[in-house]
Amino acid sequence: MWLTDTGGRRYLDCVQGIATNALGHAHPKLIKALVEQAKKVWHVANIFQIPGQEELGRCLTDSCFADLAFFANTGSEAVETALKMARKYHAVAGQPERVDIIGFAGSFHGRTYAAINASGNPAYLDGFGPRLPGYVQLSLSDEAGLADAIARPTTAAVIVEPVQGEGGARALSGEWLLELRKMTREHGVLLIYDEVQCGMGRTGKLFAHQWFEGAEPDIMAIAKALGSGFPVGACLATDDAARGMTVGTHGTTFGGNPLAMAVALTAFEEISCTDTLANAQGAAGNFVERLETLRANYPDVIAEIRGKGLLIGLKLIPGNREFMALARNHGLLVAGGGENCVRLLPSLLITTVEVGEVMERLEAACEDARQIIKEIVR
After folding, report:
1. Candidate list 108, 212, 268, 323, residue with the active-site label
2. pLDDT tens, position by position, 70-82
3. Is 224 assigned a catalytic role?
4. Catalytic residue among 13, 194, 218, 368
5. Looking at 88, 224, 308, 315, which residue is catalytic?
6. pLDDT tens, position by position, 335-350
């Protein structure tokens, strides 16, 4: 949980590479896996059989809805694979006109060109030319608009984060996700989950959608914690959803290389074990209870507690960037987020004592924010 700067000052890290270091910094088992593989083969082309890919692929598909896994390096690449897969699915079915991808305001799917078009933040497109055709943006609360868009004959897929990260730590309800799943099935539209940030144990389940039975997608993008700091991404899919992705339709140079697979396999084993997920759930409950008390004590600073599991959002009244600096002054690192939120994204292995230390530092930052507000009012 801890980082030390070049001056020797220690910080409690509740950024963790933006929900990437799920097992914290310098986990001994990850170090061992990396060093042992580094003495062997680092990289071979995907034209050859890579046993680590097969093993991790089986681990992932055995643990969720998917039948197949395609390995990449980043979440953006995993999302790009998902978007291509959705359009190809309809093309091979004789419906090439079905190209539209429905996304949502506040969403974030990565920084590559298709990903920023699928994302719900116009600022990411500024200066990069016009929007790509075939991308539709809706509000999460626009139920009628969503139903209409899904029913259109040009719609290929819906992409959504079960728990938004950068968009303000907004957790979607099981009722909403199940209704979305129902509508997409009725109209032959594929459902893509972006669990790059909220997946791999972050919510206390291996994948966030697994809190809601029956809400399983057709395609899912994961990354970040999959390598727990080492660059690994994956696009998971059912056999049916991936039927258009035959040999040669997509590829990658570095994705699924032996070095990445060795680390990711070890990370998967640690994250998916019962103790890790139970610790994440327990720590999340501890945080929420104490954060609600903090909000009640500082209603002039904290407006709302959001999120799910250890993807926690604090919607603030003062500016979130200023609050991040105040927290840092007290040795606590927190991440920013949309809708004036800050996010707490600690290691899944955070201890009860460390939760207490985070809360003490947060309270100190809240007190500083309150004093600044008083000075401004005065």
Report:
1. 108
2. 999 999 999 999 9
3. yes
4. 194
5. 224
6. 999 999 999 999 999 9
